[in-house]
Amino acid sequence: MARLAVYGAISTILAGGVIASAFAQRSNFYSACIYLYKSNACMMIILNLGLFLTIIAGQLVLMIFFGKLRALEVEHLYERAWYAVTETCLAMTIFKDEFDTRFVVMFTLLLFLKVFHWLCQDRVDSMEQSPEIPLSFHVRMVTIMTILVSLDILLVLHAIDLVAVRGPNMMIMFGFEYTLLATSLMASFGKYVLHTIDMRREDPWENKSMLLFYLDLVADFIKLVTYLMFFMVILINYGLPLHIIRDVYMTMRSFLQKCKDLIQYRKATRNMNERYPDASRAELAALSDPICIICREEMVGQHGHTLAGTGGDGSNTNVPKKLPCGHIFHFHCLKSWLERQQSCPTW
């Protein structure tokens, strides 16, 4: 904080000095502004002050909505920020003719908002590991996510308006960036809602993991379509956008892998009650340790099905099921495992 205070004091003194000098040398406000704008040294000093004020604003937002950051969140911020800056530097090769003060301001704003999008995603992901979440957490998260999504939408509309009026320009890149941010944040909000509902339930929510999977699948699909549209627009108007080829490939790979997992899951869970026979008491007794390795609870053989603990397909969710490989697990544990992996849990 001491270094930041020194940096802020020096930035403020320098900016105040060049502004006072400009107004002292020019007869009116307009001519002083023109002088400041056309002087590279003055603009660098003023932009440096703007950077300091942005850092201060970021610190205030962090304090209000996030409080003290965890070590993992700080690590993620450094990793993502480095990648975002590198990616933008590559993008500048496409828009090199449009690189000016406005580009620097737009990039700073984009990186500023990205930081809080990343923090929201990390905070939502941490909900599953938090045994108890206070009301203030929910108020903060709903408020900041609402503000960020609203800003994303407004900036996307602003980019579309400028491109429609002026033709293809650097705002194409920023428009697509904010579209991706809005998609990711809405997916995080969906996860937040599912986690909140699950925390208020007394019994385990077996369908939660599949809902999260579908949410990620839809988000990946929207991101893939957005990347492909951006790729085509840049290719047509500027040339081959090398800086997003990796992102397009990774997003397509993630989406196709999720589609493959979904097909395998549907295949593995089709008619589970009939495909996998109930484990008998003798088979359970033959085990050295009749514990389900997924939930770590004891398995008890059952004859027939009872009304309590019955799944949506009419099967008792606590009945032990035997796989073709000979391993035995609870029915509901096996189903939840197959949502993530399509192989025996012991492999």
UniProtKB/TrEMBL annotation:
Keywords of this protein's UniProt record, alphabetized? Endoplasmic reticulum, Membrane, Metal-binding, Transferase, Transmembrane, Transmembrane helix, Ubl conjugation pathway, Zinc, Zinc-finger
Similarity remark = Belongs to the HRD1 family.
Its BP terms in the Gene Ontology are:
ERAD pathway; proteasome-mediated ubiquitin-dependent protein catabolic process
Compartments in which it is found: Endoplasmic reticulum membrane
Transmembrane domains' residue ranges = 44-65, 101-120, 141-160, 172-190, 211-240
Q: What is its EC number?
A: 2.3.2.27
Instruction: Give yes or no: UniProt keyword Transport.
Output: no
Gene3D superfamilies listed in its UniProt record? Zinc/RING finger domain, C3HC4 (zinc finger)
Q: Which organism is it from?
A: Linnemannia elongata AG-77
Catalytic activity annotation:
S-ubiquitinyl-[E2 ubiquitin-conjugating enzyme]-L-cysteine + [acceptor protein]-L-lysine = [E2 ubiquitin-conjugating enzyme]-L-cysteine + N(6)-ubiquitinyl-[acceptor protein]-L-lysine
Q: Which GO terms describe its cellular component?
A: endoplasmic reticulum membrane
Q: Could you read off the lineage of the organism from its UniProt record?
A: Eukaryota, Fungi, Fungi incertae sedis, Mucoromycota, Mortierellomycotina
> Which GO molecular function annotations are given, in alphabetical order?
ubiquitin protein ligase activity; zinc ion binding
* Alphabetical list of Pfam families matching this protein: TPR_SYVN1_N, zf-rbx1
Extract the InterPro entries matched here. Answer: HRD1_E3_ubiq-ligases (IPR050731), TPR_SYVN1_N (IPR057992), Znf_RING (IPR001841), Znf_RING/FYVE/PHD (IPR013083), Znf_RING_H2 (IPR024766), Znf_RING_synoviolin (IPR058051)
Q: Please state what class of enzyme this protein is.
A: transferase
Q: What is its main location?
A: endoplasmic reticulum
The RING-type domain, residue ranges: 292-345
Q: In which pathway does it act?
A: Protein modification; protein ubiquitination
Q: Does the keyword Ribonucleoprotein apply?
A: no
Name it.
RING-type E3 ubiquitin transferase
